[in-house]
Amino acid sequence: MTQDDWFRRYQDLQQYVGWTDDDARNVKSLAGCLDPHLNPLVDDFYAEIERHPAARKVITGGLEQIARLKGSLVRWVRELLSGPYDAGYVERRLRVGRRHVEIGLDQVYTNVALSRLRSGLVAALGGVWPGDRAGLVIAIQSLNKLLDLDLALIEDAYQAEYVARQQRVERMAAIGQVGGGVAHELRNPLNVIKTSVYFLLNARTPTPEKRAEHLQRIERHVLLADGVITALSDFARMPVPDLKPIAVRRLVEEAVEANPPLDTIRVIYDWPADLPPVLADANQLRIVFANLIRNAREAMPQGGTLTLAGRGVDRRVEVTVADTGVGIPAEHLLRIMEPLYTTKARGLGLGLALSRAILEKNMSSLHVTSQPGAGTTFTVRLNADGGME
Ligand code: HEM
């Protein structure tokens, strides 16, 4: 928002509380009699902060800073009482809110500090008010409107600055997450390509069949890597996934091929022949299954059974990836889909977070159950083609 926008907002808020020129005059008439009380009130303001560690901790510059802050606060009250309530006034109020975010002050302390200051001003006024009681009540009403407006501005600026900072942090985290995800997803195909290139460069007398086989492997994995990059960069730009009917069993088989389990792992497909196609983005879904299969493989270093099952449930298709591996303790189970949360010695902890994010974008979901020592089951719930009208 520009300075003009903020000023218009302030004028709108003034109308809301019914602020008039009379209020401005009433408040101005208080300035003289309140002025001798400002220093004690400001001393009390900072003495109270001292008693609250969560507020005190933002004052890092000791007595010198407190002396400066007292000066700022006295100027703030003087300007509050005298005005003029123009765009510059509004800008200085907004600066207070922004500055409080910078120093990490919790906004609630501004609210309670203002409440204390308000009580102090009203009490002081009661003692020195030269006119009658009715006049005092009116003057206090004007002062209250003005303090409320100032607090609204400070809070508004605080909120805007806080949200802007938060968004910057989240954007940086998202960039990191997607970048890490790309690395994670590309390592496998690149390793396969590396092995085949090594063979082609170093095999003494490769048969034409072997050469062709390796070249085809390279081509397949280049395409796979390309698909991963496309899916992830699309994901980073947050597009609507390209939803098309997919034979999900074929996709799962491809994921197993690309991430072959150890020989000691038995792979079982439990899949009805009449399972309907699902509606999803094939490239994005491929990443999900690759992750789940790799996880299952890593959970069974001593071997076991990997069961890949498909079920039609109402208008949805459920695919379960179940292993008979080490299992996940309950305290980790709630967190394993968070970005960068990992229980493995290797790996960035992005696979499941990415999978869940992908599925949510595909209007699908990921669930997990596990029994330590017995195994883990991931359930992917997808929309059947024609199941979403
Ligand atoms: C009625 C409530 C408050 C008002 C009106 C107020 C006013 C101000 C003003 C005018 C500034 C200077 C802003 C600028 O740089 O232009 C400021 C900064 C600051 N305020 Fe507040 N404040 C309030 C509450 C608090 C509270 C409760 C704390 C608790 C510790 C606090 C701590 C600070 C600190 C540490 C700074 C930075 C000062 C510096 O630059 O050294 N404020 N505040």
Q: Report the C-alpha radius of gyration, rounded.
A: 33 Å
Oligomer description: single chain
Any idea of the CATH class of the largest domain?
Mainly Alpha
Can you name the CATH architecture of the largest domain?
Orthogonal Bundle
Ligand list = protoporphyrin IX containing FE
Query: H/E element string?
Result: HHHHHHHHHEHEEHEEHHEE
Order of adjacent strands in the largest pleated sheet: 2-4-5-7-6
Uncertain runs are none
* Main β-sheet description: 5 strands, mixed
Quick one: overall form? elongated
How far apart are the termini? 41 Å
**CATH homology-level superfamily of the largest domain:** Globins
Percent range for helical residues? 55-70%
What's the number of helices?
13
Strand content: 5-15%
Would you give the CATH topology of the largest domain?
A: Globin-like
Estimated structural class: alpha+beta
In short:
This protein has helices spanning 3-17, 21-34, 38-50, 53-56, 62-82, 87-103, 107-128, 133-202, 208-236, 248-258, 282-299, 330-333, 351-361, and strands at 244-246, 265-270, 278-280, 304-313, 316-322, 365-371, 375-383. The protein has 389 residues and is α+β, with helices and mostly antiparallel strands. It binds protoporphyrin IX containing FE.
